[in-house]
Amino acid sequence: MNFNMFLSGRISFGPGVSSQVGLQARKLGASRAVLVTDKTMEKLGLAEKISDHLTEAGVETCLFTGVEPEPSVETTDAVAQLARQQDCQIVVGLGGGSSMDVAKAVSVLITNEGSAANYQGLGLVKKPGVPKIMIPTTAGTGSEVTFTAVLIRRSDGVKGGINDDKLFPDYSLLDPELTLSMPPQVTASTGMDALCHALEAFTSRQASPFSDLFAREAIERVGTWLRVAALNGRDLEARSEMMLASLYGGIALANAGVTACHALSYPLGGMFGVAHGQANALLIPYVARFNALARPDKFAEAAGLLGYIEEELPLRDGALLCADALDELIEDLGLPRTLKQLKVGITPSHFDEMAAKALAVARPMENNARVMSKEDCISIYREAME
Ligand SMILES: [Fe+2]
Predict the structure, then answer these.
(1) Interstrand relation of 90-95 and 10-13 (parallel, antiparallel or unpaired)
(2) pLDDT at 124
(3) What is the spatial distance between Cα 323 and Cα 384, in angstroms, rounded to a whole number?
């Protein structure tokens, strides 16, 4: 047994905690903040609300609402340029994984020269960034507690992460009330992303007793509460449990990494613009079936945590049930289950390029319980087609 533990900074959890943002920004020594968010948050009035909390505490706010669903290196560079010009001393990320990832990257770009593209990789950031506060408005990405910012280079469509512990947020304000207005489809796909983080971390070759603690809690919570949150978005208890599942999934992910499902889903986002959570939700049953017998103990336990096990089952059978549990969950949530249903123009002629791009996502592939060849990737895409 040999492992490290990584944790981000402080976390406040509970309905209403997002109103503390101004106070916390002041405590972190800032008088001018850049607030990084998207058009949805602007429309919902949440951008203004957070901006008001900052202003009330005496923190001037420079607002950027242009983060796109699959955020780019180019957008990140533009926000960093704005933040440098305006002398912003703190970054606040408000929204889903996209806004938080851009915010985390901007924090280190304020203090490190050049483009975000220079830092895509592992441990390439030289100087610590300015402090950063994350306020998630979805429950799933876990970006509020991870050290990764995933950005697409528009020039070649390749998705790559800036992975560096200097990206760990200093403060995360987890306010379930902010997720009450999330539509059912977004609730479902982001919630499935949380489940993928937890299940992939749980079955990762880097899994530790520490990451397992959080992974188990996250898997069980998603199994119990995701249907409730998707079917009745106003249920604050379900929203709180899902926000906790996202947090735990993020901690598991930060400590054990993700595996082949995330690697295989990257080309769906990069080449066809499929939303991250939706791509992972679609692929996870196929990957779980492929992986099950490489870690039957973990997959059987996960099936149980999802409430899907009959007692006294041989381990092998229990492990294979995990994929069935995932299939059922995705069906209940009304998410697409095949590549064809996505209607984004994916055909078998794309599989070779998709498989090559998935294999290039090296760390998650190395973490995968079962060795995956290019032919295996292609056959998973083929199975997922119809
Ligand atoms: Fe994810």
Answers:
(1) unpaired
(2) 97
(3) 13
- Residue 134 CA to ligand 1 centre (angstroms): 17
CA of 277 to the centre of ligand 1 (A): 6
Is residue 157 scored above 80 in pLDDT? no
Question: 194 alpha carbon to ligand 1 midpoint, in Å?
Answer: 7
For residue 141, the CA-to-ligand 1 centroid distance in Å is: 5
Rounded distance from Cα 145 to ligand 1 centre (Å): 12
- Structural domains in the chain, sorted by start: 10-179 (3.40.50.1970), 184-385 (1.20.1090.10)
Q: How far is the CA of 29 from the centre of ligand 1 (A)?
A: 32
Mean pLDDT of the chain: 95
| Nearest C-alpha neighbor of 182 from the set 139, 227, 228 | 139
Tell me the one-letter amino acid at 122: L
Convert 174-206 to b/e letters by CB count within 10 Å (16 or more is b): bbbbbbeebeeebbbbbbbbbbbbbbbbbbbeb
C-alpha 198 – ligand 1 centre gap (Å): 10
Q: How far is the CA of 196 from the centre of ligand 1 (A)?
A: 7
Q: How far is the CA of 254 from the centre of ligand 1 (A)?
A: 11
Question: How many whole angstroms from 120 Cα to the centroid of ligand 1?
Answer: 17
Query: What is the band of 340 on the pLDDT scale with cuts at 50, 70, 90?
Result: very high
For residues 3 and 228, the model is more confident at: 228
Q: How far is the CA of 266 from the centre of ligand 1 (A)?
A: 10
Question: Which pLDDT tens digit goes with each residue over 234-285?
Answer: 999 999 999 999 999 999 999 999 999 999 999 998 889 899 999 999 999 9
Which whole number is the average pLDDT over 105-123?
A: 96
pLDDT of residue 33: 98
Q: Name the one residue in this structure whose structure tokens are 């294999």.
A: 359
